[in-house]
Amino acid sequence: MPRSRATAVAGAVVVVAASFAVGLGAGRHSRHASGSGAFSWLRPAPPPPDWKVARSAAGALAYPPGWTPIKTDPGSASVALLGRGGAIHAYLNATPLQGDETLANWTRFRPAHNKNEGSRAVRVLASSTNVNFRSGPGSCVIDDYTTSKARYREIACFVSGASSSVIVAAAPTALWEEQAVTLERAVSSFAS
Predict the structure, then answer these.
(1) Among 82, 85, 99, 181, which is 20 to 30 Å from 21 by CA?
(2) Domain enclosing residue 37, as ranges
(3) Cα separation of 143 and 153, whole Å?
(4) Spatial contact of 134 and 45, defined as CB atoms under 8 Å apart
(5) Could you tell me which residues come within 8 angstroms of residue 59 by beta carbon, excluding any fewer than 6 positions away?
(6) Which CATH number covers residue 84?
């Protein structure tokens, strides 16, 4: 095999091995503060100046231009990026504490909650019981699940602050890569 081709093949093997290692690491549970592992993007900060803020009993939920407030439960705030025919391309929700969720049990509570709500094939991709938000400590999961409408990926965090709240940022898995940065930014700016 010519030297340049052997070098290219070796380089490709290294890239594939690195991608595999990153993929394996993405599903691990993290016990580290914000800024490491699957939640390295979570850096508490105010929202961008052009974003709107929906205030509710759950806290301040920031969202970008072009998103629309949608009907939600009392005390909660929900907004969505809507596509043709009202299809949800991305979704944000902030809800006050409503059940037995805690910082310690969140990584088990949220997947069980999704199953109890009728979601199928719930799969936890990453979790952490020690992340920081603008208003206090939090626990988060990133999971996939199937509803009657589509397969979704979500970031769901329990935040203990002035009031304990849950923030959910979700999108159909087919649109996740397109929406992830915006959803992560919204979660990072949440304050309960």
Answers:
(1) 181
(2) 31-189
(3) 6
(4) yes
(5) 94, 135, 159, 161, 162, 163, 165, 167, 190, 191, 192
(6) 3.40.1000.10
